[in-house]
Design brief:
The chain is an alpha+beta fold. Strand 3 and strand 4 form a beta hairpin. The chain is globular. It folds into two domains: about 80 residues, Glutaredoxin, CATH 3.40.30; about 120 residues, Glutathione S-transferase Yfyf (Class Pi), Chain A, domain 2 (Up-down Bundle), CATH 1.20.1050. Strands 2-1-3-4 form a four-stranded mixed sheet, with helices on both faces. The chain contains ten helices and four strands. Helix 4 packs parallel to helix 7 and helix 6 packs across helix 8. Helix content is about 60%, strand content about 10%.
Length: about 210
């Protein structure tokens, strides 16, 4: 059985979706950097950065980083549809997963926790940092749409690892609203992903 350390409205929602698509048995442990308790203590022992999601795989190995977790699950459950069996398509899927985690995730960290980068920053400076990071995040989503919204890398009617992660991460920091104005076709595709039964159930549980 897998053990997933996660928190509501966090990136762990994507891993919940993926585990369900794989048909894998898992238990969910509520844990986060902010919330004290047994889950937080165990998370710190497993992952010193205290990031969620953190996934303990059968046998006791620990996986962190959403792209790495989704790639592992796609390879471990080849019939899940998380990753393509076609080598060229899978290459683009891996590129898209890396793009989301290295670009969009990094901006969201600045937006949500500007004080971690500027611990002595005045409120006006922190606000400017958040505004700049938000503009950067929205432009990164536009690039994602322009590069990956194609029949090779993007399959909203049959969601895999890329679609699952894009679905969750795009719910943060006004990205959906921005894409509705700037990339309406891509925005509509995200809406299709939201309606997949497995994905919809997890979104509802997280209050999205």
């Amino acid at each position: 059985m897998f053990t997933l350390f996660g928190a509501d409205r966090s990136g762990s929602a994507a891993i919940e979706m993926a585990l369900t698509l794989c048909g894998a048995d898992y238990r969910l442990v509520g844990a986060s950097y902010e919330a004290a308790g047994a889950g937080r203590d165990e998370l710190k022992r497993l992952n010193p950065l205290m990031q969620v999601p953190t996934l303990v795989i059968p046998g006791g190995g620990v996986l962190t980083e959403s792209a790495a977790i989704l790639t592992h699950l796609g390879l471990a459950f080849p019939l899940s549809g998380l990753l393509s069996h076609d080598v060229h398509e899978r290459a683009q899927q891996l590129r898209a997963l890396a793009y989301l985690t290295t670009n969009c995730y990094s901006s969201i960290g600045l937006i949500d926790y500007p004080e971690r980068w500027l611990p002595d920053g005045e409120p006006d400076l922190l606000d400017r940092l958040v505004a700049g990071a938000t503009r950067k995040l929205h432009s990164q989503w536009e690039v994602f749409s322009d590069v990956f919204d194609n029949p090779v890398a993007w399959h909203p009617h049959a969601p895999g690892a890329v679609e699952v992660l894009a679905c969750v991460v795009s719910h943060w920091s006004g990205a959906r609203e921005h894409l509705g104005r700037s990339r309406p076709e891509f925005y509509a595709a995200l809406g299709v992903i939201d309606l997949h039964p497995v994905i919809h159930a997890v979104l509802q549980r997280h209050g999205w």
